[in-house]
Amino acid sequence: MKEIVLSTAYLPTIEYFAFIAKSEVFFMEAQENFQKQTYRNRAYIMTSGGVQMLILPTRHDTQGGCIRDVRIDYKCDWQTKHWRAIETAYSGTPYFLYFRDFIFPFFQKKYEFLFDFNLELTLELLRLFKIKKVPELTGTFEKEYMGKLDLRNRIHPKLPAIFSEQPYHQIFDDRYPFTSGVSAIDLLFNIGPDTSYLLNLQKAQH
Length: 206
What we know:
Elements: E1 3-6, H1 14-22, E2 25-28, E3 42-47, E4 50-55, H2 78-90, H3 96-103, H4 114-128, E5 136-137, E6 149-150, E7 163-164, H5 184-191, H6 195-199, E8 202-203
Parallel strand pairs: 1-2, 1-6, 2-5
Antiparallel strand pairs: 3-4, 7-8
Helix pairs in contact: 1-5
């Protein structure tokens, strides 16, 4: 897997990072229009009550243009709400106390633009997973990319995963079966920065 193209994403999924880990070069789409109901501004975590969706609110008057111009909406205190949900869900995991201080600052600092927030958070997660890769940002919008694996609209909450996640210990596995499709922080807090897990994910059979 040489070159891939990904959309921006909020607290990206395990599959998202698996593709990066397996690629030689990855591009991040910086010129597309914003798309609702995607991982661009939503994430999923595993809680004591089951899967919980976290939606990062964006200003409606900026949603119609380029993804880099979409502004975050701070009318409601979503940062406190999201962090409390994350802390409540993962405070009992083996690695939460070790990694919390790397993640928490993103729920304190106020970023103006969604793209900038997602990019910096993704870079921090790449560092924590010890994946030594930095995205190249696209300079123009291309409907199709020749010679690259285009995942911009393929990694999507409403589509089946491409990679089959192998079960790992999740904190609530005493009450729920293994749950895939959640944010990679689930993997980080439960089993640590195990990049080998990401590299060993295999293509799913559909």
